[in-house]
Design brief:
Layout: E1 5-9, E2 14-18, H1 29-44, E3 51-55, E4 59-61, H2 71-74, H3 80-97, E5 102-106, E6 109-111, H4 113-119, E7 123-127, E8 131-133, H5 147-155, H6 157-166, E9 170-171, H7 172-177, E10 183-185, H8 190-202, H9 206-219, H10 224-239, H11 242-252
Parallel strand pairs: 2-3, 3-5, 4-6, 5-7, 6-8, 7-10
Antiparallel strand pairs: 1-2, 8-9
Helix pairs in contact: 1-3, 5-6, 9-10
The protein binds ligand T3D.
The site of ligand T3D has 23 residues, from helix 3 and strand 6.
């Protein structure tokens, strides 16, 4: 695998690091392909029960590598929709639909698609020094990689429009206070806290986590009646898992459960 992404397998989880620090981990094609391969490997590996996504150096990710977008190379009317459908959209869906928790440790600036890739993860922790920037309007583009979706759903139209139209750098603390991310933590605590979460998830009921993700994703478009049906179906499935049996047995025996993730 290319070193534009580092993929470290640990006991029960993986740490995946965007690794083009001199470009603030902006995406080129090689980094896209390497990240996709790393996430595919995490998805297919039952021993990997959680993923931490982070960035090398002082940034998390500055979105698309703009040195690959020199107008002289692209010509008069480039079709950026092709990049979205080839790379960014599949990446967003790959992160969101991974059947195990994905923790994003935003170690520094997250701009453009970099901000929205972070928001596609299940739990977003950010270093207090990190900023989230919908940088698109600065270069005459529209927020992509789910940006208009996450911002509008999490923050409402007023804040979504202000962030998108002004490219205002949102601090990690404001992002947490506004409900865009889970928590802002001291910079030096970021990786320890992300790893602690991944370690806990690696010992948890992985299949129930996957079903929980499904239920929460469905909730954003369902009526209450529809969502109750979704919960019924997913609970039926969870109730047939080994982890449910183990969870109840452990509770009754007053011991810690030993979940196998199935
Ligand atoms: O094109 C398509 O296919 C459509 C898809 C689009 C998706 C997108 O993500 S569009 C948005 C692209 N991203 C941006 O517009 C962000 C551009 N970067 C910035 O605005 C700033 O770099 C930051 C606000 C992120 C950070 O600022 P700062 O002052 O902390 O760092 P810096 O000095 O600007 O950047 C450090 C280096 O990284 C610098 O290189 P140098 O001068 O040291 O050699 C800079 O050029 C490089 N860098 C930062 N972002 C990018 C980048 N190089 C290429 N592409 C970048 N996106």
């Amino acid at each position: 695998m290319s070193d534009t992404v580092l993929h470290e397998r640990r006991d029960g989880y993986a740490v995946v690091t965007l690794n083009r620090p001199d470009r603030l981990n902006a995406f080129n094609e090689a980094q896209h392909l390497a990240l996709r391969a790393a996430l595919d490997e995490c998805a297919g590996d039952d021993a990997c029960r959680a993923v931490v996504l982070t960035g090398a150096g002082r940034g998390f990710c500055a979105g698309q590598d703009l040195s690959d977008r020199d107008p002289a190379m692209l010509g008069a009317a480039p079709d950026l929709g092709i990049t979205l459908e080839t790379f960014y959209n599949p990446l967003v869906l790959q992160l969101r639909n991974l059947a195990k928790p994905v923790v994003c440790a935003v170690n520094g600036v997250a701009a453009g698609a970099g901000a929205n890739i972070a928001l596609a993860c299940d739990i977003v922790l950010a270093a207090k020094s990190a900023k989230f920037i919908q940088a698109f309007s600065k270069i005459g583009l529209v927020p992509d990689s789910g940006g208009t979706w996450w911002l509008t759903r999490h923050l409402g139209e007023a804040r979504a429009k202000a962030l998108a139209l002004t490219a205002h750098p949102l601090s990690a603390e404001d992002a947490a206070n506004w409900g865009l991310i889970w928590r802002a933590v001291e910079d030096e605590r970021l990786m320890a806290e992300a790893i602690a979460l991944a370690e806990a998830f690696a010992r948890g009921p992985t299949h129930a986590y996957a079903l929980t993700k499904q239920a929460i994703h469905a909730a954003s478009t369902n009526t209450l009646e529809e969502q109750l049906q979704v919960e019924r179906a997913l609970q039926r499935e969870a109730g047939r898992s080994d982890d449910y049996k183990e969870g109840v047995a452990a509770f009754l025996e007053k011991r810690a459960p030993e979940f196998k993730g199935k």
